[in-house]
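Worked Example 4.2. Read the sequence first, then its structure tokens.
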Amino acid sequence: MRNRTLITVLAVLALVASVPASAGGVVIIDPVKTSDKTEYLPAASITMSHSYFAWSQSGRNGEHVLLETDSGVGVRIDDADYSWVGGFAEGDARLIFQLANLRGNADSNVKFYDPELDKISAAPGGINTDVWQWSPTYDTDGASKLWILYGENHFATPTSPWRVRVWDEASGVRRTLAEATNRCRCIFPGTIAYPFASWSKGDPGNVFVYDLGTDVRTRLALPGDRDEHAITVTADGTAYVAQDGGACGTNPKLYRVAPDGTPTLIATLPAGTEPFTLSTLDTGAGIDLYFDRFACANSNYDVYVLRGADTVARPVRPNRIGGGSLPRSGGRAPLPPGAMPPR
């Protein structure tokens, strides 16, 4: 159930303590996770009693999901060799994530983790099958019924489908919103914020927003018509989109796209990097846009946040981004984490 305005003093204090002041009201991009580890797939939530931040981290023993409560120490929540963050619904403590079993026949399924119960449970509705499910996000509608958006991949032949699917609790039906071939490998789920779902498709990519209530699909038009490879959407239909050129780390940008389709450039990132996956947090005072920044030169990820992304009127420039030297551009960015079994 959503809680757009009911944020307790505890959650507000935890959030404010983590936000550096911006001199003169200038919006900046703040580093969130910029250690020597590979950290990516950020997601955040504020409930009536706590604030949560989740991310994935690579190491010698695989890739795992970590969760911080009230800006505390990150705790690993998965029980497998490989798992990846999906996201939170607004105002909900439950984290949806992807958990892979690579022993025997590789399998990946959608799971929920409830931090209040410290319990992992399988996604409902027969979502988990013997094919590869990945990159899940969820929300609830006005009747508190679940809606889950996720990717589903088949790898058998070049024509085997990669799909973006949605399941809703009220009907119990799994619907395919879009698909591509295994040869292309070019369709990736965005996020869901009822009544809107989003995804990217193509090479170079285009981004789409789908209204689950009206059954209307819209391709978003951005300046330059370059590679729009990542998207997240909020419940009012506002989208945030990552764009770059053909080679990794060329002209990386972040856009806000209004519900009427009007795009606004809100950030330009350093050459040689790409904003890879996106998620939003409604703080009660505005929208914070989280993203993982991929470094083309060393294939590392760091996590950043653009504060007040819903009100940025002029683009944030690269020299406002902390966290290390600027890597070179070139080559191609990898598939999103979790799209295929790790080697």
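Now turn to a second chain, presented in exactly the same format:
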Amino acid sequence: MTFKDDLYYIEKVLSGSVNDFSVLIDRHKDRVFNLAFRISGNREEAEEIAQDTFLKAYHSLGSFRKNAAFSTWLYRIAYNAAISCIRSRKKLLISIEELSSDPGSFPDIPENGEESYEEYRKSLLNFALGKLNEEDRGIISLYYYEDMSTEEIAFATGMSQSNVKVRLFRTRQKLLEIIGIAEQNQLVCHEKI
């Protein structure tokens, strides 16, 4: 079976073959879900966001201009849907200053072994990502997990490319600060034991 590019299926859907939209869903569902999950931090919300994304994409398919990749256009819809979802639940974010007051929520330092240390680093990164606001999590996810360029992220988020670069820089700094505080608190907790 030969696979066609996204534009082929978009044209088929726009010509009335609505069943061909399922190919686009199958092709992009995992990445849309992953982006939604990284931003929302909640599996059920991510599933809802992904469904909403594909529903909005289907209804807006006629407005897709083809000046960007379909996936980038789809990520813009997913990003905006995830941000809207987060804002609607009015989640309170923990500031960096508040992090040091709750050392029990940090990942445990591994006893030994390179593999367990790698798992610790991954859980520490996920912990730090969870402390970012939804927009910063989204930008980091698009850049590092989806391998999007700053130009593509600018299109997906509606920000300027220079703003994306600044946000990436500042978000990396925040992540390093959060990880540093988390590691320092873990060391203090282990010394008290």
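Notes for the reader: The two ends are 61 Å apart (CA to CA). The chain is about 75% helix and 0% strand.
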